[in-house]
Amino acid sequence: MSTEQPPAVVRRGTNLDRVGEFNDTVVLAAIRRAEERLSRVELAAATGLSGQAISNITRRLLDAGLVREAGRQKGGGLGKPRTLLELEPTGQYAVGVHLDPSVVTVVVLDLTGQVVARRRTETPAADDPGVLIDGIARTIEDLIAEADVPRERVVGVGIAAPGPIDVERGVVVDPPNLAAWHLVPLRDALRDRTGLPVLLDKDVTAAASAEKWAGGPNGRGSFVFFYLGTGVGAGLVIGDEVVRGSTSNVGEIGHVIADPDGPLCYCGRSGCVGETSRPRYLVQQAVQAGVLAQGIDLDDRHAVDAAFSALCTAAGQGPGVAREILTALAERIAKVVEDIANLLDLDRVVFGGPLWDRLAPFFDEPIRAAPAERFLVRSVHPLQIAGTSLGADVGAVGAASLVLDHTFSPNPSVLLPGTAQLVPRVGALGTWKVMS
Ligand SMILES: [Zn+2]
């Protein structure tokens, strides 16, 4: 997706202004990714660019309001102390929208990736996509106003949506649990309503990307982000790179069979992990076991969500049937996680998603207790189990960080005339142009 290294050789002829744009993003990315503020000399060393080039580029980035000077390097050494550079948080902003069948989360991130405004609303029970998209557009405008962000500094909107998606056309294909959604052109609909550039990606990929950028040690190396929402899914980061698959639809694990004696799934098989992880199924189990009262309308998402919270509360009160229902859920998921970890030789599984806060207390022990012989490489290295540190906003934060990445990460294709895709222009912020 991106690289910190400029290409050693440019094999095709290219315009000088494109090289300039590319090098600007290389320097900006080096500043973004550095754990500490960098001096111009350190930037030259990190990027392989000459001191003169760094001087010109940092002047442009300072003039554009994307970086700022922030103190001087302390310590000994020859010469005068070097001026340090860091991102200017207010330089640009990105909006992230996470569309889950039960909750819509919208955040505004500043250039450093900090959330400056957020709102969570229940997804309207009426499934009409138009109503929902209008609501999202209004929320975006409200949040931009509330955060007091100059609109011209909003580079774009990222949407994290349930798969499968058609990234090329910006279309949500057939999300499970959103009955009225079929081939909804979400990206263009939201672009038309807001006038802002819009990116669409899968919820689990956005979550994995957020973890990679903002999750600290959890986000390093190779991990799966196991998403627990109205559906389940897996976002993948292998060797520090977000993996998307051939059509950005990686991670559809909902139909892995976790309990052959389980309920019938809409795919025609029994006991799929997605079906047996749904709050609806768990609530139904709890009603049958007498933990929850009869009479819950299982077709009412909000009633099911409230009943699911009651089940988690009951399970938290100690051993008993409620606890057993959630422990069995954790054991089914542990089985799936082990298969993924074995297949991909992962360092870690990171759990998150709208259900995670409520389920976290019941997962640690069953998953840690999974027999070592099932996780085959455990004799070589341990499999770490973690919860996301980004909370319930992780999908929305991820969606916004994809916009920042897309806009401000070096993309070697900028150098190649003839590639038709959206490319960022640091010199013309807020506009994405189609290169052809
Ligand atoms: Zn299924």
TrEMBL record:
Coiled coil: none
Gene3D superfamilies in alphabetical order: 3.30.420.40, Winged helix-like DNA-binding domain superfamily/Winged helix DNA-binding domain
Transferase among keywords: yes
PROSITE patterns: ROK
Keywords: Kinase, Transferase
Keyword Kinase: yes
SUPFAM superfamilies associated with the record: Actin-like ATPase domain (SSF53067), Winged helix' DNA-binding domain (SSF46785)
GO MF, one annotated term: DNA-binding transcription factor activity
Record domain HTH marR-type: where: 27-69
Similarity-based family: Belongs to the ROK (NagC/XylR) family.
Name of the protein described by the UniProt record: Putative NBD/HSP70 family sugar kinase
Taxonomic lineage from the root: Bacteria, Bacillati, Actinomycetota, Actinomycetes, Propionibacteriales
